[in-house]
Structure formats: C-alpha cells, structure tokens
Design a protein that fits this description.
The chain is an alpha+beta fold. 32% of the residues lie in helices and 28% in strands. Bound molecules: adenosine monophosphate and glycine (GLY).
Length: 436
C-alpha cells in the first residue's frame, strides 16, 4: 500500500489526483485542501481542509495517515516550506524545498544562475536595486520588459508595447516597483511564440513532458488582461504545429543545465517539476521564466494523456531514479479550456453557483476554484472548471472540448478560439515570419 498526500485544491491538482488514482499500484490518496474541491474529494480516502500556511496541521494529517510521500501542487505551499516541513517528519516530497523554490519565486536568482553557469537562453538583462544606471541601460534596448522581483503571480510583469509605450514610462514603473520590492529586473523584450515545457527532475536526471501552449489573455484573439491561463493545447506528435522537435529539445537542454547549476550552487538536489516558459525567437529558444510546479492549465493537458504510471514517475523522481523510467504519452492531441467567472480576472468577491450536466466519459472535467456546499458548487473570483477534449487531432479535440460548455450552467464563460484552426494558423504564420 502506498499512501500519498496531495496538497492543493485546483484543477491542476484534480488532474494530478486523477493520475495518482489511475496508477496500477495499491494506493490511497489523502488530500489537504484550502477549499473543498469535489473532484479531488471523490478520489480521496480522506480530506483535510485548512490553510497552506498551517504547517502543523499538514504535518499532523501526514503523520496520522502514515504518508509515504507528499506531492505538492501549487507554488504557495512550496514557498511557505511544505517540503521542508515534510522532511522534518521524515516524509519525502515531490517538489523543491523553500530554498530551491526560488527558481520560481525569485526571477533575479534564476537569471543570475543561468548567467553564472553559462547555461544560455537568457535575454540581455540587469537587476536593479536602485535607479542608478537605469536610464542608460533602458536606452541599450529597442523594447524592454520590467519584472518586480518576487512572487507576484506573473501579474506585475509589464511589457513595452503591451502595457506601456515609452522608456520614460519604463523608468517610472521601475521606480514604483522599487518602492515596494527590493529589486526589479529589466530585460530585453523577446519576440516570438511561447511554449511551456514541463520537465521532471530528480536533481540529476531531467525528463520532459510534451510542450504545451497556454493562452494568458482573457479574451478571444489574445485581447484583454493577462490571466492565470485561459486554456492550452498539445499535439499528438509531442510537438506543436508552430515549432520543431528541436525547439523542445533546446528547452530540455537548458533545463538540464539549470538542474546541474542548482546542485552546484546550493549542494541541494532539485526534486519536482521545472516548468520552463520558453519563447522561440529568430535567434533560437530563450528562457522567459521557470515555475517550480506543474502548469495550470498545462498539467491538465499532459496528465490526461500520460501513459507512464504516475506513481512510478513521482517515486522515481523522489528516489533519484528517473534514469530508470521511460516517460511516455498517448499519441493524442488535447485541448483544454477554462470556464471562468464572467468578470474574471478583475472582479473580487465573485459569488454564484455552477452546475455541470452529464459529461461524456471521454471528456475530462477538472474542478478549479469551486467550493462544494450543501446548496451546490460555489464559484469564487478565480478560474472555475477546466475542460479537456482528447482526440487524434487538435481540431477534433477542440470540437469535443467546446461541445461541453453548453452543459455548464452559471455565471461563467470561456475563450472559444483556443485550439481552433484559425488561431493555430496565426501562430504558424507568426513563427514563419520570425524565422525568415
Ligand atoms: P513571467 O511572469 O516572467 O512569465 O512574465 C509574464 C509574461 O510576460 C510572459 O508569459 C511573457 O508573455 C511576457 N514576458 C516576460 N518576459 C519577457 C521577455 N523578456 N520578452 C517578451 N515577453 C516577456
Ligand atoms: N500556465 C501558467 C502557470 O501555470 O503559471
């Protein structure tokens, strides 16, 4: 019997819970959640509700249920030190320690590491703790991106041309950031198509899962504010229509070098997910950032088609034996779209109830920010339900996914263009223009 603790309550963790329970092992799932996700609860032997910062409650729940290892879903518990807490009571985790979660929480740490160990993949960048030299540096680049250093959920990042126009505005924003943050990163704006590459590391060996493309903007046609991600797709051949297999391998190579650099720099092995946001530019694949966890929504795509036994994979990572396992995926395309509150992402204190009528078995429904109460499924201000269609082609997967939205009733909507031929053709044309 393998007792597994899962920390997290989103759609990503629902997909993870499902992968755990799909495993052929003799397993039981114990879930620690901050809201009652009904999908995860249904798959769990036992559930505890609490705050991720209540490490004593998490430890007690783990001890009481004789947990063999813990899997940490979101960035918050990683940043709070959930892995370190588990280690204190002799439980191994799939996820980095608080120290190594800096890969995500400190953008400057990661950029400096990549630079120090000559990994390659960085844009021109500099970290500023004051405005000294800032004006001169801004003038060295055509267009720039400004990033507050620290965990801001990607929301503090401002891109020239999208969020502001002039270097003066860039300077003012840096100044504003420095009033509340110890440092700000200024980097060259990269132009190209983005993909997410979620890799698994045992500290020495790094393996990749199929590349995914996420859609950050709220509305069709990539319009509106940035969000946590409105939907994503993968292709059956383990690549994406606008990229080459080599592009993904370049992302993997960068990630392998980063895992090695982390070990050299800290003496600690990075165990867990290294999810790189990459961009394919005219000059090749470049790194935008790393996250220390599976992507949300990207995890829903890749977990849905994972052929390898999930517990075997997680255990191999935790035990430093990733070289002994083949990570395989069904040759199927996936399209994931999020139903989100109509006013997402700007509104706070959103209230409402959603319902989902019968969904065919070959469509996956993953609950996100919902709370199951006696009178129904309550929504919050965050994303509501992830829907994944799986088929031989992206086109068919998109159609399957889209068909389900008639069955979701409540104050939510979604992006209808994700995974459509038109939008994918735009990505292909964009990339062609860049490579020419
Ligand atoms: P991050 O939080 O670093 O992922 O940044 C959020 C978004 O800003 C990314 O998904 C990119 O679309 C964009 N971005 C970040 N850094 C750059 C860059 N150097 N060049 C162009 N776009 C960027
Ligand atoms: N897909 C965006 C994220 O997981 O951060």
């Amino acid at each position: 019997m393998t007792n597994i603790l899962l920390i997290g309550n989103g759609a990503r963790e629902h997909a993870m819970a499902e992968a755990v329970m799909r495993s052929k092992r003799d397993q039981k799932l114990f879930s620690f959640m901050k809201a009652n996700n009904p999908g995860i609860a249904d798959l769990s032997e036992k559930v505890a509700l609490g705050s991720y910062s209540d490490v004593d409650a998490i430890k007690a729940f783990a001890k009481e249920n004789e947990i063999d290892f813990a899997i940490i879903g979101p960035e918050d518990p990683l940043n709070i030190g959930a892995v370190d807490s588990m280690e204190e009571i002799g439980i191994k985790s799939f996820g980095p320690s608080k120290n190594l979660a800096r890969l995500e929480t400190s953008k400057s740490w990661t950029r400096m590491l990549v630079q120090k160990y000559n990994v390659g993949g960085n844009p021109l960048f500099r970290v500023f703790t004051s405005v000294e030299g800032l004006k001169e540096f801004l003038e060295q680049m055509d267009e720039v991106v400004i990033k507050p250093d620290g965990l801001t959920g990607g929301k503090g990042v401002k891109v020239q041309g999208d969020h502001f126009d002039t270097k003066e505005e860039a300077y003012d924003y840096c100044k504003e950031v420095l009033e509340t943050h110890a440092s700000v990163i200024v980097e060259e704006k990269l132009v190209g198509e983005e993909f997410s590459l979620q890799c698994v590391s045992d500290g020495v060996n790094v393996v990749m899962t199929p590349p995914v493309q996420d859609h950050k903007r709220r509305f069709n046609g990539d319009k509106g504010p940035n969000t946590g991600g409105m939907g994503s797709y993968t292709d059956a051949d383990g690549s994406l229509p606008f990229m080459t297999k080599q592009d993904a391998l370049d992302g993997l190579e960068i990630t392998r070098k980063v895992a090695k650099a982390i070990l050299e720099e800290t003496g600690e092995k990075y165990v867990g997910v290294m999810y790189g946001g990459f961009i394919i530019t005219k000059k090749g694949v470049r790194l935008i950032e790393y996250n220390a966890r599976w992507g949300d929504p990207e995890a829903m795509n890749t977990h849905s088609v994972m052929k390898t036994d999930y517990i075997d994979l997680i255990e191999a990572a935790v035990d430093g034996k990733l070289d002994q396992i083949d990570v395989e995926f069904e040759p199927m395309a996936t399209v994931c779209k999020y139903a989100v509150p109509t006013e997402y992402p700007d509104a706070k204190n959103v209230e409402g109830v959603v319902s989902v009528a019968d969904v065919p078995e070959d469509i996956k429904i993953y609950y996100a920010s919902v709370d199951k109460r006696e009178d129904g499924l309550h929504i919050t201000s965050s994303r509501t339900i992830g829907v994944v269609g799986i088929a031989r082609t992206i086109k068919e997967a998109e159609a399957k996914c889209e068909a389900i939205f008639d069955k979701i009733k409540g104050p939510v909507d979604h992006r209808t263009d994700i995974g459509t031929e038109d939008l994918i053709q735009k990505r292909i044309d964009h990339m062609k223009e860049i490579r020419d």
